[in-house]
Amino acid sequence: MQNNQLAPKIFACRQSRVLAEKIAESYGLPLGNVIISNFSDGEFQPALVESVRGRRVFIIGSTFPNSDNLMELLLMLDAAKRASARHITAVIPYFGWARQDRKDRPRVAIGAKLVANLIQAAGATRIMTMDLHADQIQGFFEKPVDHLYASTVFLPYINKLGLDNITVASPDMGGSKRAYAYSRYLESDVVICYKERIKANEIDSMELIGNVKGRNVILVDDMIDTGGTLAKAADVMMEKGAISVRAICTHPILSGGAYDKIENSKLTELIVTDTIPLKRESSKIKVVSCAPLFADVMHKVQDNRSISGQFLM
């Protein structure tokens, strides 16, 4: 039984309040009280209403755009640091700006590295996140990183579907490692989509590497943004003879016309987590909560226990 005097404090940024409430409930503690003061020009200032001196603090906040979400997390971390918290864990279910993980053309920023530096400078002594866009982003931090995998919550859901003749698919070459990890667990074949883009978020053409005829296909990706890739992939696979096409994507960014694309596509179902709150409901979108996973890992971090048993991948 934890000594209540040493119990951690859990705080939420506004953009992740709903998920944070679920995590706190699973953990068995109430959310800490935060007051946000807003200025007329759009500036805001969070204040932790209760003492955190000498305690471990978990601050939960995804950093999806707009940039206010990142700024709020940074201010919360700084507030905890200045209030003499003993350990400050930044719980970032969705680590935004992660697609800027390398210098792929001249004179561009490496946004993921910049954000990692900001989070550490603000006071985080540990980072907890899920399904980074690129594994190497862990190396951008000088602090410990707990990189969780959504497969822990997705695979039990897939097993409950009771599907036969499963084939796992990657929507692009970059996601092949993730697809093979799922296929090992499901003991299935793998197919890969090869796509060419005219520009960001716009696909010129797509080809399929592998056979999907007579198969129940499960597309695996870390995020879904405009939905164009998955909608196109589902259409191609159904034309190639697939029985059904489902997609599992950890982070439902769903920008622009993504909802319409998903609803009008040949996808049977899109399965996502709640790292980012949905903008609207859809009959094709199923949300599987990652809150129990985060809560369990937070317990283990607090008790200095190993978390390696959490990983199915």
Strand order, main sheet: write it out: 10-9-8-11-12-13-14
Strand content: 25-35%
Work out the helix count: 8
- Oligomeric composition of the shown chains: single chain
How can the largest sheet be summarized?
Answer: 7 strands, mixed
CATH class of the largest domain: Alpha Beta
CATH topology of the largest domain: Rossmann fold
What is the count of structural domains? 2
End-to-end distance: 31 Å
Based on CA atoms alone, the radius of gyration comes out at 20 Å
- Shape descriptor: globular
Helix content: 25-40%
Enzyme class: transferase
Catalytic activity: D-ribose 5-phosphate + ATP = 5-phospho-alpha-D-ribose 1-diphosphate + AMP + H(+)
GO molecular function, one term: ribose phosphate diphosphokinase activity
InterPro entries: PRib_PP_synth_CS, Pribosyltran_N, PRTase-like, PRTase_dom, Rib-P_diPkinase
If you had to describe this structure to a student in words, what would you say it looks like?
- The protein has helices at residues 17-27, 67-82, 111-122, 151-161, 176-186, 228-239, 258-264, 291-302; strands at 9-12, 34-38, 44-48, 56-60, 87-92, 126-130, 145-148, 166-170, 189-199, 202-209, 216-224, 244-252, 269-273, 285-288.
- With 313 residues, the protein is α/β, with parallel strands linked by helices.
- The protein has a seven-stranded mixed beta sheet with strand order 10-9-8-11-12-13-14, sandwiched between helices. Strands 1-4-5-6-7 form a five-stranded parallel beta sheet, with helices on both faces.
- Helix 1 (17-27) crosses helix 8 (291-302).
- The chain is globular.
- The chain starts with 8 loop residues before the first strand and ends in an 11-residue tail after the last helix.
